[in-house]
Specification:
This protein is largely without helices or strands. The protein has three helices and two strands, in the order αββαα. Strand 1 and strand 2 form a beta hairpin.
Length: about 190
């Protein structure tokens, strides 16, 4: 009887671990057990240190205790006369001073909005003519451009009431071919 293919042991072609240099080396080993690894949230190494000093020193004015020559008495050294600053005077309680101590109204140029005035914050500006006003120039105003000669003729295409040449000289103004009006002699002289 023939054995099935399942009975034969075949090599997995995707595994190359038996070939030297084909596997990556472990650069970062696995983390240790939970109790032995570093916990960044826990700061007991600072607050619950095994060693705690009993020295209490002021870094600005350190004092030290040491034994004198007889080795029985403790002597404190470190306080230097004149090394401490003078005490500030008490604050003033005068209400006139307290209310006006930060005001700057008496100083020229310290008012609001004086930055852009330059040297005019301390003196009045002289009156000068306005350079951008063109109302005194003929023809410089808007709407002053003449587009055509001005005339009294009105031409309306919807109501054509035109003045024909010689219309006033006719006896009948509605008859263009009528008789002309006689010219008085007084006008000719």
């Amino acid at each position: 009887m023939r054995k099935k293919n399942e009975d034969y042991r075949t090599r997995d072609v995707m595994k190359i671990g038996d070939i030297e240099g084909t596997c990556a080396t472990i650069r970062h080993p696995d983390r240790p057990v939970k109790n032995q690894q570093y916990d960044p949230i826990n700061y007991r190494d600072v607050t619950h240190a095994e060693f705690k000093t009993k020295r209490c020193t002021n870094p600005l004015q350190p004092t030290y205790m040491f034994r004198a020559n007889d080795d029985k008495t403790l002597v404190e050294i470190g306080a230097v006369a004149g090394s401490t600053p003078c005490v500030l005077p008490p604050p003033r309680q005068d209400q006139n001073f307290v209310k006006t101590s930060l005001t700057t109204t008496d100083i020229h140029g310290c008012a609001i909005g004086t930055k852009g005035l330059y040297n005019f914050h301390t003196r009045e500006r002289r009156d000068h003519p306005k350079s951008c006003v063109t109302s005194d120039i003929f023809g410089a105003n808007p709407g002053s451009l003449k587009k055509a000669p001005q005339t009294l003729r009105d031409t309306n295409p919807l109501n054509p009431n035109y003045q024909m040449p010689g219309r006033n000289e006719l006896t009948n103004i509605n008859d263009a071919f009528g008789k002309p009006r006689p010219v008085p002699l007084t006008k000719l002289q």
